Amino acid sequence: MIFIYLLSGLFLGWSLGANDTGNIFGAAVETRMLKFKKAALIASIFITLGAMFEGSGPSGTLGRLGSVDALGGAFTVALAAAITITVIVRLGIPVSTSQTIVGAIIGWNYFSGRLTDYGSLITIASSWVLAFVLSGAIAALLYYLIRPWVNRSRMHLMEQDFFIRYALIIVGAFGAYSLGANNIANVVGVFVPVSPFKDISIGNLFTISGLQQLYLMGALSIVVGIYTFSHKVMRTVGKDLFHLSPITALIALLAEAIVLFLFASRGLYNLLLSMHIPPIPLVPVSSTQVIVGAVVGIGLAKGGKNIRYNILGRISIAWVAAPVIAFFISFVALFIFQNVFEQTVQQETAYIFDRVVITKIARDGYDTDALAPVNGRKFDTEQDIFQELKQQDALSREALMGIIAIAEKSPLQVDLAKIKASGFGRNFSPEELDLLGRLQDVKFRHKWQLSEALGQYPQFKIHRVPETEAQKNHNRLVEEKLQILYRSLRIK
Amino acid sequence: MALLLKTTRFVESQIDTFLDVVSDSATTFQLAVEDYLNGRIDQFDARLAQIREFEHRADDLRVSVERFLYERTLIPENRGDVLAILENTDEVIDNIKDSLLQFSIEMPQIPEELDDLWIQTTRASVAAVEQLVFAVRSFFRDISAVNNYIHKVYFFEREADHIGERLRRQIFAMDIDLSLKSQLRFFAIHIEKISDAAQNVCDRLSIYTIKRQL
Questions:
Q1: Within an 8 Å CB–CB cutoff, is residue A492 touching chain B?
Q2: How much is the ipTM here?
Q3: pTM of the shown model
Q4: Three-state DSSP class for residue A461
Q5: Could you give the CA distance from residue A467 to residue A452 in angstroms, rounded to a whole number?
Q6: C-alpha angle A485/A284/A235, rounded to 5°?
Q7: Distance CA A377, CA A458 (A)
Q8: How far is A220 from chain B (nearest CA, A)?
Q9: Nearest CA among A323, A319, A405, A303 for reference residue A364
Q10: Residue B138 has pLDDT above 90, yes or no
Q11: Contact B76 A32 (CB under 8 A)
């Protein structure tokens, strides 16, 4: 059954390969600086390397996707996202894969009666504008800086061609590597805890872990997507929207790399923090919006006359439409899967308001007076609690979500072997694993109880009111680790 | 890096050699005309043989560059433009060779009083070709200088036209056979055509330069 479920992940990988490779190599291929076959080969190699060696367990999107708690649900959500991306890519329009997945997850949230965090919706909407404008501005700036330099450089046309070609390959390869590292989690991330693959030892030289095999499969699905379907998106990015020359193609790609590095690189953020330099805030940007913004930025810097605004309009509509379509497909597909195919698309969850929970709610500073209608009761869905409590004006939506998270029943049992078997062991330092070992076999009824039990150690302590960027970052890292534990330690 | 740049440098040197050949052809043409006017026919024949050699060489170089650019998909954005420039520049050598060949076949009797204008026309045409070579070299290396050279080419082309017109007027004002007048006019026009060919290349070059500027 797991293999059938895995198919939708691979379908998603295929559509991601078709879409996102266009963002990286579209400009290079369409300016004929790189042949499609060469670009596809480079992309395939580096995406696979990125996925195998740096495929991050808990990326932001995976964290959200991880909230889909049943495999049937994850299958449907991935399927809905993949269908949406495929349809839009067929039209030759680049679309943000992460945003489409989030749209599909919100569909699952609605279906399963969960409350949706409006934060992720705002994130999507702001990225439509922010990433686009930001990369457009940077591309235009680069254009103004590079133009006089190139015109005065006295470099032979042939040499210029040589350097641009190799720069396009190098920047593209980096892009492909980080695409593999960041997006493999979207493709097969949800299947990590149930991976059917066993470790394979090749002689005594090295071992390919089950997780790496899973990631390799995901990477291969991306590769197939590149070879079979990415050409149309490449054409839109590199030619249809605005006719790029090789050097402007390089500028667009550089602008993309800079924006993604400055505003989306966790590595840079951590580095600046460790050097006690105020970090550049992490802005949620999508490579699709960044590259389209860069191309438009260059087009405007060149006078704006040759930009095809009708194509830009189509792209913008598709950006808004993609998460919405994914939401509806996801919702309908979940309904069909649950009721026609009788698959479990969500885990049975209960929310209880007993003494322990109310005490914790009070301890966290929420107003417990408003909880009178739910006190001592048990609920099946978040929506039920929300309906019950929303009459109380005393509680904001944010507070309600906090309270619901505390009330959620989520039986957990610490089992170090289980963490290691899930392939997520490498997300913890040996010291952290040692601390977890001290809680071996201890059972918890709520997630926050595990968090509190671990919170006694500084490594897992969450700062209630983070004051510095360093504390905020520490909180984020701890939260990510806790999310992994919540998923891999759950018991029936 | 040097190893990676091998093909690039090779094509660069081919293009440079091609332009050297064009420049040499123009200079040789001027010397050949002077030889002819001074009655040094043996030397003239040697120069004609040299120019034939140049023409073959230029053809070979052009074809070699074309093959490299297409086979290795180099400079995809400018490939068509570069090939057009090379082909049109090659036509300048063809014109030079045709002109000298015509001299060699017909051996026209040029009255001595025309020598000065004849040489002036030749010099103006040759100067146009030399400036064209500078312009094409700049197109590859220093795009900002191209327009200066193009301007010079236009100047010398006009100059060649102007002096050529004077030459033709003088031919027809002379008391010689109409058949000779007609023959000499043909040769005068042939020399002017060399600068016209240089101008044709520049017409394209100025557009390609705009395209190449970012």
A1: no
A2: 0.87
A3: 0.80
A4: coil
A5: 20
A6: 115
A7: 35
A8: 29
A9: A405
A10: yes
A11: yes
